[in-house]
Amino acid sequence: MAPAEPILQVRDLVKHFPLTQGILFKRQIGAIKAVDGVSFDLHRGETLGVVGESGCGKSTLAKVMMALERPTSGSVMVNGKDITKAKGAELKRMRRNIQMVMQDPYTSLNPRMTVGDIIGEPFEIHSEVVPKGDRRKRVQELLDVVGLNPDHINRYPHQFSGGQRQRIGIARGLALQPEIIICDEPVSALDVSIQAQVMNLLDRLQKEFNLAYIFIAHDLSVVRHISDRVAVMYLGKIVELGGDNQIYERPSHPYTQALLSAVPVPNPEGREARQRIILQGDPPSPANPPSGCRFRTRCWKAQDICAKEEPLLQIRPGTDHPSACHFAEALDVVHSQS
Amino acid sequence: MSDPSVTQDLIHGGEGPAASVVSASNKPRSLWQDTWDILRHRKIFWISLIMLILFLLMAAFPSLFTHKNPDYATLAKSMEPPSGEAWFGYDLQGRDVFARTIYGARTSIIVGVLATLLTVVLGGIAGVLAAYYARWVDSVLSRIGEIFLGVPYVLGAIIILGTVAPAQSSPDRVTIMAVVIIVLAVLGWPILMRIARSSVIQAKHQDYVQAARALGAGPFRIIFKHLLPNSLAPILVYATITIGSYIGAEATLSLLGIGLREPVISWGIAIADHTSYIRTGAHAMLFPAAFLSLCVLTFVMLGEAVRDALDPKLR
Ligand SMILES: Nc1ncnc2c1ncn2[C@@H]1O[C@H](COP(=O)(O)OP(=O)(O)OP(=O)(O)O)[C@@H](O)[C@H]1O
Ligand SMILES: [Mg+2]
Description:
The complex is a heterodimer. Chain A is of the alpha/beta class. Chain A has helices spanning 58-65, 88-95, 115-125, 135-145, 162-174, 192-209, 220-224, 244-249, 254-261, 268-273, 304-308; strands spanning 6-21, 27-43, 47-51, 73-78, 81-82, 98-101, 180-184, 212-217, 229-234, 237-243. In chain A, the strands form two sheets. Chain A has a six-stranded mixed beta sheet. Chain A is globular, with a radius of gyration of 21 Å. The model of chain A has no long low-confidence stretch (mean pLDDT 87). By secondary structure, chain B is an all-alpha fold. Chain B is globular and about 75 Å long. Mean pLDDT of chain B is 81; it is low at 1-28. The interface between A and B is large, with 55 and 38 residues. Bound molecules: adenosine-5'-triphosphate (ATP) and magnesium ion (MG). The site of magnesium ion has 3 residues of chain A, from α1.
């Protein structure tokens, strides 16, 4: 379904946060390796799910792609132009094409602005997009598109529920008609019943406007329905990347297998049949990751080679999609083939 | 594969009246609304508000409170004690102490308010710049602020005022008030800078600022639309308290003979002029001193009441 030309190309992206000491004369004593060499493509109209535990660098990756943080190295090509190197008017123009929906609907809307001002702000910043007289109408159309009452344009964010606020955030992201929207855990702050509504809305908008999504979540079950492909992240690196069925039915990296074994299974037979893999310990600190394979300290397959040699993200014998494990082998964890 | 259907059910079942709940009762409400609800039930807030209104009326329309001329002197009545004719008695030069105390409110409040405004502007700009640009801008501004804070207040004032308006000089009304206002603000801005800086830093890390940046908003829009409106509360509270302390500081400087001086009418001057008569004619000093204390207290109490109401830890 995805055409050949990617609209987003991320190459060897690295973001290290320096750890400094001293007040006046700061000196660097180390770095938090939040994102450490990430590459992938995104095609028009496609959804890439990005999954990983808390602290593995998902939000940092999103911020670097949005040019909110400067990468330590690497590039993010949006329609062939590197957004991380763009400046001034060019950067501003590029921003029209890539927008984001934030995690927390309670902090992502300015409490001192009305909904009309919040959704209308993109038009004020990019005044060439919609003439002044038409802006209010455009805002009302956007409210309608995301399923809110256009008459509520003069209300303040605190007068809405969490799910409604997230719709406001989505309307703001849509305003400039971007081709790419990065959703950073857009439903994790919402009630389960509301989560489904917002996911459904995102799904509908994708079809309506042919949007490409990067959909970030810490849980594989959330991304499953919306993603065409899934990237699994661990400590700043992608450890497995594949199509939705490849990841869910034939996961080959032990970390993915462990994550999948924790996903709730709706059908009782599946629950009986599957084995649970419980990971020991917490993820190591991104300031001081293990040598070789970063997952080896929690991996039941770890051998000497895992400490010495870093496994690259590549297709390995017996697998049909890239995996960063020396001992990758497809394993059906969920037993959900039908 | 059965899981998608579960979500489908939720999706269709959930889209309905549940999605249109708009109620203020169980959702977080605006900061000011909560603050007002707490303030309404505080006695101290109402007391200080009423006193504030009284003092402001005094400053704006002194003739509402007294029909006497504060500058009219009858030397024969020098230091006469309070009586039915002159409630607060007469001062050293035979002027009506009540009238002078009422008229003194204007000077004190003008000095307090203008010096605070200047402090807020100086400290606010420095704080916003330090917080927004961080890095070396922050380091430089914070160090400069520390240098100013390191100078003891009175010492700093003596040095500046002693140079610009020495005790024996007699500058005109406007000049000396302007000088005192500037001195107070120049010595006081670093504290306001710290408050503005920390509250802007807090606002800066909010997601809505990131969202505005992602939309391509420039520094001007981010500062004026997003950062300032959301960091104003602590600045306003501190400013209110500052008005009170500046009124006290102005009196201190007058007492030292380097602040305001004749022909300005002020509580500080009245106190200064009569300190040596405290045993024979305390009234000439005590009434202005009482008004001064009450006025300082009013602003400090009001500021603290609002601060407590804004403080989420006390809820
Ligand atoms: N501005 C920063 N300065 C220093 N370290 C940071 C900064 N932002 C993030 N980090 C660190 O980078 C690592 C990755 O953080 P990030 O927020 O990207 O994780 P995440 O995958 O989004 O986690 P979560 O699921 O909790 O949102 C963490 O260890 C975090 O402490
Ligand atoms: Mg995150």
